[in-house]
Amino acid sequence: FKGGDTCEYLLSSGRFLGERVWQPHSCMMHKYKNSEAKNCLIDKHVVFIGDSRIRQLFYSFIKLINPQVKEEGNKHGNIPFEDKSASIKVDFLWYPEVNGSMRQRIKSWTEGSVAKPHIIVAGAATWSIKIHNGSNEALTQYKINITSIAPLLEKLAKSSDVYWVLQDPVYEDMLSESRKMITNEKIDAYNEAAVRILNSSSRNSKAKVKVFSVSKLIAQETIMKSADGLHLPESSRDTNAMILMNVYCNKIMKPIDGSCCQPQPPLTLIQKLAFCFFTLSIIGYLIINLIHRNNFRKNKSCTDLESGEEKKPAISTPNVSTLEMLLHSFCKLGLIMTYFYLCDRANLFMKENKFYTHSSFFIPIVYILVLGVFYTENTKETKVLNREQTDEWKGWMQLVILIYHISGASTFLPVYMHIRVLVAAYLFQTGYGHFSYFWIKGDFGVYRVCQVLFRLNFLVVVLCIVMDRPYQFYYFVPLVTVWFMIIYATLAIWPQIVQKKANGNCLWHFGLLLKLICLLTCIYFLSYSQGAFEKIFSFWPLSKCFELNGNVYEWWFRWKLDRYVVFHGMLFAFIYLALQKRQMISEGKGDPLFSNRVSNVLLFISILSFLTYSIWASSCKNKTECNELHPSVSVVQILAFILIRNIPGYVRSVYSSFFAWFGKISLELFICQYHIWLAADTKGILVLIPGYPMFNVLVSTFIFVCVAHEISQITNDLAQIVVPKDNSTLLKRLLCIAGFFSGLLLFSAMQDQSRH
Predict the structure, then answer these.
(1) DSSP secondary structure string for all residues of 439-486
(2) Quick one: average pLDDT of 222-242?
(3) What separation, in Å, do the N-terminal and C-terminal C-alpha atoms of the chain show?
(4) Transmembrane segments in this chain: where (predicted)?
(5) Do 236 and 367 have their domain in common?
(6) Is the residue at 465 inside a domain?
(7) pLDDT tens digit string along 681-698?
């Protein structure tokens, strides 16, 4: 990547994704809403000066501020626009030729007595070609006139944003007889003159007139749809107006999905400290490794000079010390985090907007499903939702979710609703898995809790520090963490009811059901009491974890969207384990789960329920209404899938090792995609290899999966060190962790204060 200013790329190069979506070269373009445009341009004066094409751009620009504006008024005269609510003034000044009149108007802005516009957009040429019948003398005069105007524009560029719009090509076959002399050859000559003359006296200066040449590329693709062969269709000029808005506003508004023209964010204090820590870890590991190498050389087999025989002293392989393992893990993690930062915080690699097509989503889905079926093996055990089966389930769901994210399929409502079921299925497994563990093992010790919390949160905490993002930004991890603590609290609070105790007295089963009913009541209350929910999570320091953009609404929305599914997972685990204990189900290899008749009936109902849900989800018209129903009905498709997957014995006895491999690193895949596969915090796509989209996806995917796998191993290694089984050592580690988070909160507060 040769580097360069993304603003320059935005103004000069790009391509169409589909028919209407413009993709600038190397960066992402934000789609500004009216409110955002007003906030950016508040108290600003914008001037468009030129011919009818500039007037078109003027109208598209002001419609970004007020969509109700109609294109009316004197076409060959000045047109004012004002938005009093935001004190925005946008004027169109009719100067169809680059001549003395235009020069005089521009010169008036350079004089101290007149207020300078904040943004000036200028351009003209077609009228000169038309009036002078395309003569060479007119081109010569154009060069003289623009040469006289250029120094004035360059002077204005020191205090204002000045753009010169190059002339778009025309569709010569559609031009009227009075415009036949306007040829693309003539337009190219005028554009070449403008580019050569503008900024000629300030080549090394930062204050330059920005040449708006991207409009030519857009016109080349769309001018055939022009009504008269000269003026661009509305969609094309709207794209030009959006580009202008991005060039000026991105550095002010800093939208996440608008990487064009955004400077690299400065390193925060916490990021600098993290950088120092990882650097010291790498240096420490290299020193220890060097010492070990020297010791190994000294202990190597040496030759006895007298006998000529080789003596091989017994060398015992030394155990890797805890310190060395710790430094080794942090060394690898430091290198990986450097890659994360370079991909999604430094302006080193390119980023592009997503663009959804049905083929970009469904073809990869079919491909991975074929791969998954190809790698089919026998399971070690044939129980319902055995470890291999749940890993497989997590794996294929995670791969589908990844394809959903990179293809931008969230814009297609039926796909969105099915993906919501997959996220719910993850949470269902959370309820099922943790309930089963506590119910069977009866282990409510601190060690178990700390192990689970560490494995869930380690990567996210590191990313919050390195990438300067709030904890709630990685919403899925807070979700599963809170639900784990809710499951733990429900079962650990007196009376502790576990399977061993319940087997002695059936009344304990009713006691557990009573606990689950209390949990359901609390969930129901909080889901319909947003105020109470927000009060709970607005207390410091909880607010530091669950706030996003200054409030906890996003957290409430995410929690509410799948509020019942964890409870459903716990209830399913309870019923399944009770049936299993009473030997009411058959889990032998190749055996159906129930009697043949019952199995066939349940299988038919499951398939019917699965398809019914899919039909309902595919017929959704309104995302808000469907999201309201989703918490109550998502369990239908989840249970249907479990029964379809487990009732036939031959299906329950096999699994896909391909999907199961991905399932073991599913959490790392879900989190890592934010920064090293997608880009701009999931809003775009990371581009390591420009110009070759398929090859780029292959390379970035390979690196992404390897990194996720490596982080999974690092997390497992560190979990053994940071969370030891010995209670006294564990208590000391917990005090150290509490001190670490206290320091983190302190530094975070200092950062917030400095930002304000």
Answers:
(1) HHH----HHHHHHHHHHHHHHHHHHHHHTT--GGGSTHHHHHHHHHHH
(2) 94
(3) 35
(4) 269-291, 355-375, 396-417, 452-468, 474-494, 506-526, 561-579, 600-617, 629-647, 659-679, 685-709, 730-750
(5) no
(6) yes
(7) 889 999 999 888 899 999
Domain count, the chain: 2
Structure-block tokens of residue 635: 């369990």
Residues with a catalytic annotation lie at 52, 228, 231
Q: Are residues 575 and 690 in the same domain?
A: yes
For strands 302-303 and 310-311, give the pairing: antiparallel
Q: Please tell me the distance from the alpha carbon of residue 83 to that of residue 91, in angstroms, as a whole number.
A: 11
Q: Identify the residue whose tokens are 């090509």.
A: 169
Q: 690-699, long-range: CB within 8 Å, 24+ apart, which pairs? A: 690/1, 690/25, 690/26, 690/350, 697/406
Q: In what order do the strands lie in the sheet with 684-687?
A: 350-353, 684-687, 678-679
DSSP 227: S
Say which residue the tokens 């778009």 belong to. Answer: 168
Question: At a CB cut-off of 8 Å and minimum separation 6, what does 531 contact?
Answer: none
Among 235, 253, 271, residue at a domain's last position: 253
Residue type, 517: I
- Provide the domain limits for residue 27: 6-253
Residue 576 to residue 581: CA distance in whole angstroms: 9
pLDDT band, very low/low/confident/very high, at 751 (cuts 50, 70, 90): confident
Q: Would 504 be classed as within a structural domain?
A: yes
Alpha-carbon distance of 327 to 286, in angstroms, equals 9
- Write the DSSP assignment of 482-499 as a string of letters: HHHHHHHHHHHSSS---H
Q: Contact at 8 Å (CB) between 231 and 180? A: no
Residue 471 lies in a domain: yes
Q: What's the predicted TM-score (pTM) here?
A: 0.91
Q: What is the pLDDT of residue 207?
A: 60
The answer to whether residue 294 is domain-embedded is: no
